Amino acid sequence: MKKRPSARVVLMNEESRVLLFNMMDQLNPGQGSIWFTVGGGLEEEETYEEAAKRELWEETGLENVKWGPLIWIRQFEHIYQGEPTLFVEHYFLAFIRGAEQRKVNLDYLTLVEKETYLGHHWWSLEELEESEEKIYPREMKRLLEPIVNGSLPREPIAIAK
């Protein structure tokens, strides 16, 4: 089985909101859109942490962030580019303050990302709870609550799809 390692960024602002992108669901074509964190696949010989930093810059143009720890790891199998694939996602916590968060720059998205991008939003816990939208990871609100309350996991938490 092919493996696809990727790094994701749980970017929080000073109002305890998380940045999520809304894009057409590429893993399930025809199934509408999904909301998910910034991030993507590792490049050759790149670490998960290096990929997280690169992906954050490529997808948002944001650099002035304070990096936190690796907080979650999610693994799931899915057909990707016609092949059974094991997705291994490492989620890193990062924080941004002030006006920087309003400067999300989409100029460096890949062509596929530009074609499937529908928008982005800084989500509050309340919005996550009340939303009917498809949001990944599915338990985003429950996973973020301890972090918003100042409790970071000592070890990365294995999370469900």
Fold and architecture overview:
The protein has 161 residues and is an alpha/beta fold. The chain has a single domain (2-159), classed as Alpha-Beta Complex (Nucleoside Triphosphate Pyrophosphohydrolase). 21% of the residues lie in helices and 41% in strands. The chain contains four helices and nine strands, in the order E-E-E-E-H-E-E-H-E-H-E-H-E. The strands form two sheets. Strands 4-1-6-5-9 form a five-stranded mixed β-sheet, with helices on one face. A four-stranded mixed β-sheet has the order 7-2-3-8. Strand 5 and strand 6 (83-95) form a beta hairpin. The model has no long low-confidence stretch (mean pLDDT 91).
- CATH hierarchy class name: Alpha Beta
Distance between the termini: 18 Å
Structural class category? alpha/beta
Number of strands: 9
User: What is the overall number of helices?
Assistant: 4
Are there runs of 5+ residues with pLDDT below 50, and where? none
Give the CATH topology: Nucleoside Triphosphate Pyrophosphohydrolase
Q: Per DSSP, what share of the residues sits in E-state strands of 2 or more residues?
A: 35-45%
Main β-sheet description: 5 strands, mixed
Q: Which bin fits the share of residues in helices?
A: 10-25%
CATH architecture: Alpha-Beta Complex
Described by the principal axes of the CA atoms, the overall outline is: globular
Q: Overall pLDDT, averaged?
A: 91
CATH superfamily: Nucleoside Triphosphate Pyrophosphohydrolase
How many whole angstroms does the radius of gyration measure? 15 Å
Number of spatially distinct domains: 1
Elements, N to C (H/E): EEEEHEEHEHEHE
